[in-house]
Write a structure and sequence with these properties.
The complex is a heterodimer of chains A (177) and B (568).
Chain A: E1 12-20, H1 25-35, E2 39-47, E3 53-61, H2 67-76, E4 80-86, E5 91-102, H3 108-117, E6 121-126, E7 129-136, H4 138-148, E8 153-158, E9 162-165
Antiparallel strand pairs in A: 1-3, 1-4, 2-3, 5-7, 5-8, 5-9, 6-7
Chain B: E1 4-7, H1 8-18, E2 23-26, H2 33-39, E3 46-49, H3 53-67, E4 71-75, H4 79-83, H5 85-93, E5 98-104, H6 120-124, E6 130-133, H7 140-152, E7 158-164, H8 165-169, E8 171-174, H9 195-204, E9 208-212, H10 214-219, H11 222-232, E10 236-238, E11 253-256, H12 263-271, E12 274-278, H13 284-287, E13 298-303, E14 317-320, H14 323-341, H15 347-359, H16 374-385, E15 390-393, H17 397-405, E16 414-415, H18 426-436, E17 442-447, H19 448-454, H20 458-463, E18 469-474, H21 479-488, H22 504-510, E19 514-518, H23 521-533, E20 539-544
Parallel strand pairs in B: 2-3, 2-4, 4-5, 5-7, 6-7, 9-10, 9-12, 10-11, 12-13, 13-14, 15-16, 15-17, 17-18, 18-20, 19-20
Antiparallel strand pairs in B: 1-8
Classes of the chains: A alpha+beta (177), B alpha/beta (568).
Bound molecules: flavin-adenine dinucleotide (FAD), thiamine diphosphate and magnesium ion (MG).
Chain lengths: 177, 568
Amino acid sequence: MEKTEQTPSGNVHTLSLLVENKSGVLQRIAGLFGRRGYNIESLAVGPTERPEYSRMTIVVRLEAKPVDQVVRQVQKLVPVIEVKELKPEDLIERELLLVKIKTPEQNHAELRAIADTYEAQIVDVSPDALMIEAAGTAAKLDALEERLVKYGIQELCRSGRIALERGFKTLAPPSLK
Amino acid sequence: MAKEKMTAAQAVVRALELEGVDYIFGIPGGTILPIYDAMFSSKKLKHVLVRHEQVGAHAAEGYAHATGKVGVCFGTSGPGATNLVTGIADAYMDSVPLVAITANVATSLIGTDGFQEADITGITMPITKHNWLVTHPEDVPRVLKEAFYVARTGRPGPVLVDIPKDVLNMNVDFEYPDEVHIPGYLHEPKEKPRLGDAAQLIRSSTRPIIYLGGGVRTSNGFPEVFEFCELVGAPVVTTVHGKGAFPETHDHCLGMFGMHGARYANYAVQNADLIIALGARFDDRVTGKLSTFAPEAKVVHLDVDPAEISKLVTATVPLVGDLKVLLPQLGAEVKRIFQEKGRPDLAPWWKKVNDWRAKYPLRFKQEGEKYILPQTAVDRIWRKCEGRAIVTTGVGEHQMWAAQFWKVSAPRQFITSGGLGTMGFCLPAAIGIQCARPDALVVGIDGDGSFQMTLQDLATAVDLKLPIKIFILNNLFLGMVRQWQELFYDGRFSETPLSDLPDLVKLAEAYHCLGLRARTLEELDGVIDQALAHRDGPCIVDIRVKRQEKVFPMVPAGAPLHDMIGGD
Ligand SMILES: Cc1cc2nc3c(=O)[nH]c(=O)nc-3n(C[C@H](O)[C@H](O)[C@H](O)COP(=O)(O)OP(=O)(O)OC[C@H]3O[C@@H](n4cnc5c(N)ncnc54)[C@H](O)[C@@H]3O)c2cc1C
Ligand SMILES: Cc1ncc(C[n+]2csc(CCOP(=O)(O)OP(=O)(O)O)c2C)c(N)n1
Ligand SMILES: [Mg+2]
């Protein structure tokens, strides 16, 4: 069941950023990635344990450039307090999926069973459609998506990955702790 | 300091005074009027009214480059702000500390396509170290404090502060902060610099080369660099921004290398077994084809910007930090290891280098030429200035002849637009330099094309009676482009000939300044003397040079650094 990454191994990286929660910060970061040719595969941003900071998780795909170069360029942005690459073996990552399936009522039981296998919920039901919510690793959601294709996916939305490093380490530099 | 009530516009003026600003270059307009009004009564700030905001930005660059202080320029909202963009981009590429202050339309109009509204913080995000849109008047003192701090620290560069007009008119309780707290700025490097490893590499190298860049200037590390170069005893090459980082008249200095560097300098780099790069960023104009750059060399790279390390050329030993601090530490390690294990024998290497130097000197041949060669002009002006002048240039062939033949032996004396390569830089930079250094001899080596991009600011130079001397190497061509057309496009001179306009002598007359012309070699010396003797305002000199002369040697774009054409 477990699907491997679609892209060649070694060139997709997960970056975790602690940034100032101010207007324009997302634009600065997205702009840097754009102009330096770093492809963003997914980007998720949201509040943190402290209101003055946001955390971003950026999954970046790099053709030839080393990820260190990306980290150093991002670190130079003034509102970026800390940035770190999270290695696959060191991180817990999650993504959220909402998917709407147009399907007659007789299929609903089958879909519930699939949802159960993926620890997903049915969050909305109408006579000829239902919506499933699932959370997990990108690979798990990819697999679920694949299972659902034949029932007719009407609309699909994924949140982009969020990730934290395992263990006691945190991203905030000592000066902020 | 007690808090004082004032408008945000007055707070801007007060902050500039407290930062020790003396010169500001700009043009007023509707939205920035409150600042100009507040400045009207300032006794400390001298505002230079330029005729185009781009000139204001370049003049501020010239000022900053010549002094190491932060340059300041103003622009009003919309076109005033967008006119600053080229100068800001230029400062960004060349690591020049600059604070640009713009006003924007009132907060209520922002986002409505208001009259003269431009999203200047959005526009300048990619070309500033940071920028600020100030929406609360009480933030003005802190933001200006941060702006100056960010501009001058670490790797210097431009910043921009944009303040809407309504905010400028609001009141603040002014208190200027003593300190700056920006949690995301200037991180301590994660690793300690491996000075011992670097020293070990230097000890075991038999063909070392020292590569000096603009970082020597921005760090003010001239004495440290001199001492280090003397200690290591290796050949020294520089970038165009490294000119003056080590005296070019010193026997160890091979001068500029790169696309238009001397053959011997490029050969030395290509054959080195160790490159010690100090405050330089391996620009494509100096490396040539990257995969063939110095194939046998290990690299010690000292730079204050961690993102420069291994960006283009992988560093064997990176040293991240301020050159002024780190280089003496490296020197101490080297000294220790030399004492312990003896110095490497560089004699065979020097013999090789000196053979190249003897065989492929940088030269030109005026004898037998009917017209003045541009190199002759540069050489004669340089001789007559006796090393006293601060020189600045436009962009093109004339710039490269200046880089080749204007030998610089002191810091901050060769000021040019390298990274962006902005035509029109010369006159504005000369204005800024002369403001900063009223007693210095300021010389411009300009091109006819470049000069015409900003010549309206002769008026500014005349207003201020600045005794700048702009020598225009007039080839009636966009020469550098013409050179590429001749060499790589079968001589198809598409849109590069320039008509013989304007008459530069009459132009000078129209601006009430001195205009001179030399058409022949016989006229040249006299005209230079006359220009240098003129102290009563600016002087422009139209030097008619051989039109088809090209800059050699040259590494064609994308070729290996040792594959040079010409100059052999
Ligand atoms: C027509 C034309 C032709 C050109 N041909 C050539 C040529 O043949 N040869 C040539 O050299 N250039 C040439 N140039 C210029 C070239 O494009 C680059 O601008 C130049 O090579 C860059 O110089 P630099 O490496 O010294 O870097 P700069 O742009 O001056 O950068 C300075 C470096 O120092 C670092 N630094 C700053 N402060 C410190 C500090 N305190 N401590 C340590 N490090 C610090 C910075 O992080 C940066 O990496 C040409 C330009 C034009 C327009
Ligand atoms: C603003 C700008 N536009 C275009 C160019 C491209 N360009 C580089 S050199 C050059 C010709 C410069 O002509 P001139 O100033 O007469 O100098 P010359 O090469 O003839 O000495 C041009 C057009 C540039 N560098 N800057
Ligand atoms: Mg020309």
